[in-house]
């Protein structure tokens, strides 16, 4: 009997560094650009190699510009993975930039990412899911294939409230970050990929997948946080999400973060993050279960591979940025 082909999914990792978490959180000392990339990247690459997976790493341009990170970032490309643009300064208020500032931000990031890895990024994800019509126009003008910045969930304001409660930010800094993790109405955005038509060209929008119907987050950080209370419940939650994706024919794009692979034994100074009370070996063990559920049900691609397949689909919706509640 001929085996039925599995549907596709994509997997990406936002390579936020220690300094970028500290900067967004309002902690002192981020200006020295402390980095855990030399610890993190070999751990993640080994994890992926063991499972024969190729994914997309969204790299912050400032990290690519620092010589101390070059070897670690080059290893990503050497292992056959894809790189994406995660902005240069990793400021979640990117949507407040002027068109000229956005163009400069993307161009500088592109240059340093390509110098460090040998790859020019063609996919973008905004820091903190920051997005605007101007960002999309600039991406199209610069020849990008895909944007992966939309996060269709109603829970963004709750995540932001928690983040602000644990931060040391001034009133002015809080104002800059007031759209961090998105708005309530982001839950009305489409869950399936679509093509964006703009004056400067077109892009495939590949949303970060949330649970169909309920629009609650399902990326690894949330599963790990649930696992602090009940690993069994956490995995049941993820399995239900994957089952709903299959039922509603959603090809999931699952997001990973560095702290999904790091614990309190690695970074006690980032204890304010959810699930950072777990040691790294427990987090990696749960990550193994999460990825196993995904690969049992889907063929996992990079972001650009996923976007190219969607671009060829005859039934992909075509939308204007004004229709997606930016």
UniProtKB/TrEMBL annotation:
Keywords: Membrane, Transmembrane, Transmembrane helix. Pfam families: Polysacc_deac_1. Residues 20-154 form the NodB homology domain. InterPro entries: Glyco_hydro/deAcase_b/a-brl, NODB_dom, Polysacc_deacetylase_ArnD. SUPFAM superfamilies: Glycoside hydrolase/deacetylase (SSF88713). The keyword Cell inner membrane does not apply. GO terms for molecular function: hydrolase activity, acting on carbon-nitrogen (but not peptide) bonds. It comes from the Bacteria. GO terms for biological process: carbohydrate metabolic process. The chain crosses the membrane at residues 222-244. This is Polysaccharide deacetylase. The lineage of its organism: Bacteria, Bacillati, Cyanobacteriota, Cyanophyceae, Leptolyngbyales.
């Amino acid at each position: 009997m001929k085996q039925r082909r599995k549907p596709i999914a994509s997997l990406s990792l936002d390579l936020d560094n220690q300094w970028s978490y500290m900067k967004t959180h309002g902690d002192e000392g981020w200006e020295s650009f402390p980095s855990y990339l030399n610890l993190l990247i070999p751990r993640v690459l080994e994890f992926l190699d063991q499972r024969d997976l190729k994914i997309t790493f969204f790299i912050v341009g400032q990290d690519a510009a620092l010589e101390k990170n070059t070897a670690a970032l080059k290893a990503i490309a050497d292992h056959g993975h894809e790189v994406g643009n995660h902005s240069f300064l990793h400021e979640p208020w990117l949507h407040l930039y002027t068109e000229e500032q956005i163009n400069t931000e993307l161009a500088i990031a592109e240059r340093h990412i390509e110098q460090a890895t040998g790859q020019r990024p063609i996919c973008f994800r905004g820091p903190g899911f920051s997005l605007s019509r101007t960002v999309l126009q600039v991406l199209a003008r610069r020849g990008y294939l895909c944007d992966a910045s939309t996060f269709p969930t109603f829970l963004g304001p709750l995540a932001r409230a928690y983040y602000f409660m644990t931060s040391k930010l001034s009133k002015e800094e809080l104002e800059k970050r007031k759209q961090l993790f998105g708005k309530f109405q982001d839950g009305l955005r489409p869950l399936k990929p679509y093509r964006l038509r703009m004056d400067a060209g077109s892009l495939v929008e590949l949303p970060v997948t949330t649970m169909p119907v309920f629009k609650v987050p399902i990326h690894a950080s949330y599963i790990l946080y649930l696992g602090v209370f009940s690993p069994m419940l956490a995995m049941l939650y993820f399995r239900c999400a994957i089952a709903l994706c299959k039922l509603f024919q959603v090809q999931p794009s699952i997001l990973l973060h560095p702290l999904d692979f790091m614990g309190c034994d690695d970074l006690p100074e980032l204890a304010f993050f959810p699930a950072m009370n777990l040691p790294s070996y427990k987090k990696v063990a749960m990550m193994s279960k999460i990825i196993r559920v995904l690969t049992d049900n889907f063929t996992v691609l990079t972001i650009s591979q996923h976007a190219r397949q969607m671009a060829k689909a005859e039934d992909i919706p075509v939308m204007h940025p004004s229709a997606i509640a930016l």
